[in-house]
Every structure is written in C-alpha cells, then in structure tokens.
C-alpha cells in the first residue's frame, strides 16, 4: 500500500517548531506544526480519533526530517496530539534543533516553505518522513516553484505519487534529492526491477503505467546495474552467513563458486557433515520477499540434477544487512520445468529463463543476516 502523502505550506506559527526560527520571527508560542483536521482525519486517517482515544489523544511516532537544501535524514521521536482546545492535530513534542555539527540547519526555514509529509501506518501514523522544501535554498528553489501550483487557498493538501513525481521531474532534481523518497512507488520499483531482469510481468506493469513518466533507456540501464549490485551485495551477505555456519560446525565447509566463475549456474556449494553437497543460488532484492525470482535455463537444468539445490532469498537489504528465507530443495520444480520446456518448445526455440513467484516454492522461516563488522 502506498504511503499517505500530504504537503503543508508552513505558516509563521508552524515555523516555531524550529527553535532558531522561533527566536527570530516572534510568531507566538505554538512550537508545533498544525496538521489540518480536514486532511489528517478527513482524508488520510478517518479512524485516528478512535485509535487515539485510548492514548489520551497522543500518538507517538518516529520522525525523519530531510532538508532543507536536500539534506539527509535527521531522526527524532515526536508525537501528534490533539486536545480539546485545538481545532487541528499538531506535530508537537518539543523544539527541533539542528543535528550535531549542523546546529543552524533549520534557521532559514520561513513562512511559505513546504513540508512534504509521508505518513507511515494504516489506521494511525506510526512514522513520518518530513521533507522540508525551502523557497530560498539552491537545491529546493525550482522544486518549490513546481509544487506551488498544487495549492489554491488551502494550507495543507493531500497529494499522489504522480503529483510528487511530476514536480520532481519538472524541477529536474538530482538523483539524491530526498523528494524522491516521497515519489517512490514500491509497486513500480518492483516492476522496474523485474523488467530489468527480463521479467514479463514487470514489463507489462510498466507499459500500463499511465499517469507517470515513461521509462527511458537510462532508467532501465540504471535498474540493471542496480540489480547486479544488489545481487553482489546479497552474495556477500551469504558468504559471511556461511562462514559463520562453518565456524559453528553446522557445515563442514563451503565454496563461493560464482566469485570464481561468474557464469556458474549456482552461487555456493556447501558440504554437510556426511560429505553431501548442496548447491545454493542466491536471489536478492532491495524490496520485499515476494518480488519475482528469476531462474535462468542453465540454473533450471543444473537444479534438475542429482544434487540438492536451494534458493537463498535475500530481501529488504539495507545498511545493517538483510532478511533471509531458504527454500526447500527445488529439484522437483526444476525437473518439471525442464521436462515441460523440452516437450513443448519447437525445434530451434529455447526459453532463456523463468520468472518464479515466491508462492510457488516452500520456504523456511525468516531470519536476519547482519553485515560483518569492519
């Protein structure tokens, strides 16, 4: 499900959340950003009032502030609150100071700047990415101009992924601008990842991607390069994982086969206690577990042989590591695919690979794989 996205055009009282601005503009003592009730509960979270009734109308949430001037995440804990005297909810808690080493970061925020709010959570917010867009900072000025036409006489509006993507495109923002966090669409990201690997389903979704920008050759090339780096990252994690298994005596030893031969039809070979071999094919994604898995014909033919063959699905990769689920032996499926291919492809025709839904395989429980300390 897409995140709930709104944009607030900051009023003088909203700006008092930031201590440096509070001291400078003298716009009351609010120390919070108003979250208009007609947007927050009227459109984004209709059940919020009922949910918050048990918490004294206070909802704690993790906040990551990005910007202004395209600056990276500053992580805080805050609350959204509403008491009987408030017309609206408020992002409240305490003054926001600049992070260590950048104490003056928010001092230039001014009325009329934008706060893009990407709310996480279903019935109530549990997290918030707050992306500040300053009309006076070099990295934000064009984007501020591109967002301005979305507003009429309202100070807070709901926007779509397409609105954000269009503004980012019109402003020509750089690839590392935090606005792209709000424009991200996990479904389309998964489709592009699938298409970059030759997937039929992902390509089909992109072709039906009406209302969003077309996919350029550069986009596809970048997705292919990203998929390759993700694959290497996943293999590196599993190398560390197997090294720990070997040190603990869970396996006798292992070999990182694809590190020595990039066209090998599996990535690792392990040796168990009785000397039995197992082949491992690592399939990695930055996205969720159920993104499509791609098996080449060479991998299917190898997996149809006599040696047990398992898929190690690495997903949700981040700076700390990733998640892992291990499939049961896929030899039965591989033999079926191989036999079907041989029986039904006309002479001179070969299918290069197969897209496999994770639901078509049986998996062990999820476990975390952490990166090794430097």
Task: Explain briefly what this protein structure is.
The chain is built from 13 helices and 16 strands. With 374 residues, it is of the alpha+beta class. The radius of gyration is 25 Å and the shape is elongated.
Description:
The protein has 374 residues and is α+β, with helices and mostly antiparallel strands. It has 3 domains: 4-184, Beta Barrel (At1g16640 B3 domain); 188-222, no CATH class; 225-370, 3-Layer(aba) Sandwich (Trna Endonuclease, Chain: A, domain 1). The chain has 13 helices and 16 strands. The chain has helices at residues 12-15, 19-25, 37-44, 48-52, 141-147, 161-171, 179-183, 186-196, 200-207, 217-248, 257-260, 297-303, 331-344, and strands at residues 4-9, 33-35, 58-66, 74-81, 89-92, 114-120, 127-133, 156-158, 253-256, 268-271, 277-284, 293-296, 309-318, 321-326, 353-356, 367-370. The strands form 3 sheets. An 8-stranded mixed sheet has the order 2-5-4-3-7-6-1-8. β4 and β5 form a beta hairpin. The chain is elongated, with a radius of gyration of 25 Å.
What is the element layout, followed by pairings?
Blueprint: E1 4-9, H1 12-15, H2 19-25, E2 33-35, H3 37-44, H4 48-52, E3 58-66, E4 74-81, E5 89-92, E6 114-120, E7 127-133, H5 141-147, E8 156-158, H6 161-171, H7 179-183, H8 186-196, H9 200-207, H10 217-248, E9 253-256, H11 257-260, E10 268-271, E11 277-284, E12 293-296, H12 297-303, E13 309-318, E14 321-326, H13 331-344, E15 353-356, E16 367-370
Parallel strand pairs: 3-7, 11-13
Antiparallel strand pairs: 1-6, 1-8, 2-5, 3-4, 4-5, 6-7, 9-10, 10-11, 12-15, 13-14, 14-16
Helix pairs in contact: 5-6, 8-9, 8-10, 12-13
């Amino acid at each position: 499900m897409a995140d709930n996205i709104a944009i607030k055009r900051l009023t003088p009282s909203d700006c008092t959340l930031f201590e440096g601005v509070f001291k400078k503009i003298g716009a009351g003592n609010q120390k919070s950003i108003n979250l208009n009730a007609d947007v927050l509960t009227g459109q984004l979270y209709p059940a919020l009032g009922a949910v918050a009734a048990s918490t004294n109308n206070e909802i704690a949430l993790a906040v990551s502030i990005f910007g202004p001037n395209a600056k990276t995440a500053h992580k805080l804990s805050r609350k959204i609150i509403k008491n009987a005297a408030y017309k609206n909810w408020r992002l409240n808690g305490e003054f926001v100071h600049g992070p260590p080493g950048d104490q003056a970061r928010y001092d230039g925020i001014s009325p009329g700047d934008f706060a893009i709010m990407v709310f996480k959570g279903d019935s109530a917010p549990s997290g918030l990415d707050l992306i500040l867009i300053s009309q006076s900072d070099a990295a934000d000025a064009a984007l501020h101009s591109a967002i301005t036409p979305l507003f009429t006489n309202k100070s807070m509006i709901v926007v779509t992924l397409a609105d954000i993507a269009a503004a980012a495109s019109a402003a020509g923002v750089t690839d590392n601008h935090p606005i792209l966090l709000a424009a991200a669409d996990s479904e389309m990201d998964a489709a592009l990842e699938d298409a970059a690997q030759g997937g039929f389903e992902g390509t089909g979704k992109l072709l039906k991607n009406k209302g969003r920008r077309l996919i350029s050759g550069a986009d596809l090339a970048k997705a292919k390069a990203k998929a390759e780096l993700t694959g290497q990252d996943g293999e590196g994690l599993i190398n560390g994982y197997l090294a720990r298994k070997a040190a603990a005596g869970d396996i006798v030893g292992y070999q990182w086969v694809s590190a020595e031969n990039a066209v090998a039809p599996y990535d690792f070979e392990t040796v168990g206690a009785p000397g039995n071999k197992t082949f491992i094919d690592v399939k990695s994604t930055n996205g969720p577990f159920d993104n499509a898995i791609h098996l080449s014909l060479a991998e299917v033919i190898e997996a149809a042989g006599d040696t047990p063959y398992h898929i190690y699905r690495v997903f949700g990769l981040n700076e700390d590591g990733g998640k892992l689920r291990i499939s049961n032996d896929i030899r039965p499926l591989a033999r079926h695919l191989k036999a079907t291919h041989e029986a039904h492809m006309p002479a001179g025709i070969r299918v290069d690979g197969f897209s496999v839904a994770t639901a078509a395989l049986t998996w062990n429980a999820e476990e975390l794989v952490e990166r090794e300390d430097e």
